[in-house]
Amino acid sequence: MTSYDSISTSPGIERRALLARSCERCRTRPFALCKPLSVKQIHTLSPLFFPLPSKKHLYYEGSHITETYTLCEGWLLLYRVLQNGKRHIVWIALPGDVLGARPAYYHPVRHAAMTLTACAFCGFPHLTETACRYPELALRIAALYAETMALQRDYLTFIAQRNATERVAFLALDLYRRLRRRGLACGNRMPFPLTQEDIADTLGITAVHVNRVLHRLSREGLLVIKHHELTILDYQRLCEFVDSEEITPSD
Amino acid sequence: MTSYDSISTSPGIERRALLARSCERCRTRPFALCKPLSVKQIHTLSPLFFPLPSKKHLYYEGSHITETYTLCEGWLLLYRVLQNGKRHIVWIALPGDVLGARPAYYHPVRHAAMTLTACAFCGFPHLTETACRYPELALRIAALYAETMALQRDYLTFIAQRNATERVAFLALDLYRRLRRRGLACGNRMPFPLTQEDIADTLGITAVHVNRVLHRLSREGLLVIKHHELTILDYQRLCEFVDSEEITPSD
DNA sequence: CGTAAAGTTGAATTCTTTCAAACACGGTGG
DNA sequence: CCACCGTGTTTGAAAGAATTCAACTTTACG
Q1: What gap in Å lies between CA B188 and CA B235, rounded to an integer?
Q2: What is chain B's alpha carbon radius of gyration, rounded to the nearest angstrom?
Q3: Residues A52-77: what's their mean pLDDT?
Q4: Which end of chain A, N or C, is surrounded by fewer C-beta atoms within 10 Å?
């Protein structure tokens, strides 16, 4: 494992945090955790806003974190490392996603969180009692979990039932759609900070095979990933390819 | 697709339901949705208790269901059918599991629910407003979702990163542990109503290969599935083989 | 007791991995 | 400015895992 520097979740660590005061202008709020609360209500929870550079850990697997985080800016990977040394990326977080979900606040997290790009976070103290003060918030968490779970099931379905080409197409399409829904894609292009190895570790295939499959997809005129940018070449056909399997690009 | 008879979720359908009045004696309640509520509080939600025979649908993919269900007895499969006709089982529900999770009550469910054995359910009207009345309930839902999501991620990890033998071993072990935690396994044995094809459709392998792998696992002295019963032959070695940390439930 | 569903087995095929080596690119230091 | 280095990408060939197809046996159930 590469040993990246990281902030710690233990108290007292320097981390240029500041009370989030600019919720009115926050571009993430419309689809984030705090959506159902007024700015005034949000401030009673004293959220801390702080940045984190690229390739740093927000927390490690097994940490007892004391906050629930909203990813406000940047890309972040949730992953675990298996006994055999393989890394599995369980979730690719985009702005608006909630981090640190677990059954109870006293449970350790079951995955590590590492920034892929420079990021910014909003951290709330864990929400057990506060959620009782704001039941809308508890419902909002439940709704976001349900949404995430549904999407996670889509990944499960694709990884379980589809071949490598379809999996890669699905991943690209999902990221594009999630980003566009949040106003972060521009036209048919979007930033794409994942390496081929990251894709491989997400979809359960090898980086070598991801490479071959990406060539196939661009040869077929569906999508291109180049210079950390993803371009959707034919959205219509890509959708058809992903949720039916009419078009099987052969060799 | 086999065309099983089913109850419909539309109103007016005969379904021998009765107001659940015996919550005091309910064996499922200690780990179910309603756990944090008093019997009195539960009854203000007028839950309906009803049975359903084996191989019937509780709801279909795309249904607009109006209730949240707790599975009180029996086994149930959540599955979807892909365009290519393949079936993917996204979740094997055991007593205590919550069914019908979705981001908002007006969303259709993204999967079908079919009983594998005779089942019994407890149905609550959807919980949007009631959860505000009982914030503990909203938190409880969030906690159960988080727990389910964590387990779902384990499945994702296994299906993405492990070979067929390890996947089957993992599935068997997970079902055994979940059942045991709820007091439904007896010693090293438990009822096992899944067919080899069900296992295959859960883990993304073929039934033929599941068969070969099961023989391998029994030849290795790890587990045996026979006559709808699973026997753990060597729990210790099976755990080592599967090598997943024991998951502590949110009690 | 007979039929349908589920399980079993072998052989050929397909998809993916593994191993190995080479190339491209961006950043650093001399 | 260029050589150097590391990370990430590319390509080929061989090995391995799982699928497919097909036939057969066993089990469950009315």
Answers
A1: 8
A2: 18
A3: 94
A4: C
Q: How far is the CA of B58 from the C1' of C18 (A)?
A: 46
CA dist B149 and B155 (Å) reads: 10
- C-alpha B157/C-alpha A200 separation (Å) is 13
User: Between A and B, how many residue pairs show a Cβ–Cβ distance under 8 A?
Assistant: 126
Q: A22: which residues sit within 8 A by CB, 6+ positions away?
A: none
pLDDT along chain B (251 residues), means of 10: 36 53 87 91 90 95 92 96 93 94 87 96 82 81 89 96 97 96 92 97 98 97 95 96 63 43
Element (H, E) at B112: strand B112-115
DSSP for A143-155, written as a single string: HHHHHHHHHHHHH
Specify burial of residue A176 (Cβ count, 10 A radius: 0-12, 13-18, 19+).
buried
| pLDDT tops 70 at residue A251 | no
pTM: 0.89
The b/e string for A60-75 (b: 16+ C-beta within 10 A; e otherwise) is beebebebbbbbbbbb
On the 0-12 / 13-18 / 19+ scale of CB atoms within 10 A, B150 is buried
Please give the order of strands across the beta sheet that includes A112-115: A57-59, A112-115, A76-81, A87-93
Between helix A164-181 and helix A135-161 the angle, nearest 10°, is 160
CA distance B232 to B244: 16
β-bridge partners, B37: none
B232: helix, coil or strand? strand
- C-alpha of A125 from chain center: 21
Mean pLDDT of all residues belonging to chain A: 87
Closest residue of B to A101, CA-based?
B146
The structure tokens 């999508």 sit at A223
A41 CB inside 7 Å of strand C = no
Task: Using DSSP, state whether A229 is helix, strand or coil.
Answer: strand
Query: What tokens were used for A22?
Result: 């600019």
